[in-house]
Amino acid sequence: GHEHGPVVGISLPLPVPLMFYQLFFKFNFSLSRYQRGALLTITSGPGFHLMLPFITTYKSVQTTIQTDEVKNVPCGTSGGVMIYFDRIEVVNYLVPSAVFDIVKNFTADYDKALIFNKVHHELNQFCSVHSLQEVYIGLFDQIDENLKLTLQTDLTSMALGSSYRYSAVRVTKPNIPESIRRNYELMESEKTKLLISQQTQKVVEKEAETERLKALIEAEKVAQVSEIKFGQKVMEKETEKKISEIEDGAYLARQKAKADAEFYTALKVAEANKLKLTPEYLLLMKYKAIATNSKIYFGNEIPHMFVDSGSAESSVKASAAMDILGEQMMDRD
User: Fold this and answer.
1) CA atoms of 154 and 170, how far apart (whole Å)
2) Global confidence as pTM
3) The Band domain covers which part of the protein (predicted)?
4) Cα–Cα–Cα angle for 93, 94, 99, rounded to 5 degrees
5) Which one of 108, 109, 293, 298 is least enclosed by Cβ atoms within 10 Å?
6) CB under 8 A, 24+ apart: contacts of 240-249
């Protein structure tokens, strides 16, 4: 915008041709000069400048960051409720090199067109398509950013985006009718109670969930311990089974070895006995068995009772055997 900064007028004793010039000193402003009412293309920055009184005039234009305040902006919502924004602050900055173009297109009071009128228009556009609930509560936190974006977009569409910039927009809470405000306060109070109730319920649910998780963890712990103990018992039984199998295997091996040895011994005895089973040996054993008899029969026919009459050789062998047996019996006596 434009603000009149400190201006210092100095009168100097000058030659007659220059007596009508005055010296001006400006801080943080650019000067837009007018000669006979026409805007000059040359602008002056801060410093000392000379002008011709009554012929050359000027407008001071601030070229540092400034804040313009738009006050008491009326706004009608989509529901027909009229509300008022007490104050809207727009932080803006004009590039010094663009002073001539801005003043030429919008005059030195450019902030009226680019800020005040724009803010009124855009804010009413926003309110007209939103309800009181949205403007006052639901979307209020987005108004400032949306307003800044809309203003900057308009500047860009006019090819002024690099010449004039909006740094920030701050919007105060709008004033609403008293009856509606009381309803909102009551609604906020009820909402607060509801939130407290919901939070309390969440706390109770959280505590119950914590207890449930604790019980679940404890049950899992018990189950894991039982599983470990069961696993230990299974391992013990498997170990005992393996030991028993090893012992049974060893016993079976011993018994098999013993049976094999006995079988081998019996086999060898049988083979030895088989070798002994000659007719002579059998006859000898036969006579030995007779010799053990406690009854002895004497008579002329007794020697012939074991004699095979069909073979003379057998009779001879039987006679010899009887002789041997008789000798053994005599020796025994």
Assistant:
1) 18
2) 0.47
3) 22-188
4) 170
5) 298
6) none
